[in-house]
Amino acid sequence: QERLVESGGGSAQSGGSLRLSCALSGFSYKDYCMGWFRRDPGKEHEALAIVASDGTTRYAESVKGRFTIARDNVKNTLYLQMNNLQPNDTAMYSCAAADLPCAIVGLRPHTFGYWGLGTQVTVSS
User: Fold this and answer.
1) What CA–CA distance (Å, rounded) separates 104 from 44?
2) Mind listing the pLDDT tens digit for each residue in 53-90?
3) What is the DSSP track for the chain?
4) What are 12-26's pLDDT values in tens digits?
């Protein structure tokens, strides 16, 4: 059974950094797309970044230049390095996987079928 577990969330000051990790298990499809998303209470998921099995990445404009997504296919782990955090980055952050290539699913949360429970990130000014 597929399982994604996030870690690394917490609190940061404005301008600070955090690194999120997502451990994936039980996923047999090889060319799967992985991504990071965030959501404020009562709102839809916002796609932040996706990474293909070959390391190709794509970012939302809101985080481009500040956040870096990476995956380790041996450890089946996804990472999100977040720099220059701002208060409006405060949200619940989730990792997700799709059993389709990133070129097909894109930055569209509804195309990702496997989700972690999320980790809270809070940025204070």
Assistant:
1) 21
2) 999 999 999 999 999 999 998 899 999 999 999 999 99
3) --EEEEE--EEEETT--EEEEEEEES---SS-EEEEEEE-TTS--EEEEEE-TT--EEE-TTTTTTEEEEEETTTTEEEEEE-S--GGG-EEEEEEEESS-HHHH-S-GGG--EE---EEEEEE-
4) 999 999 999 999 998
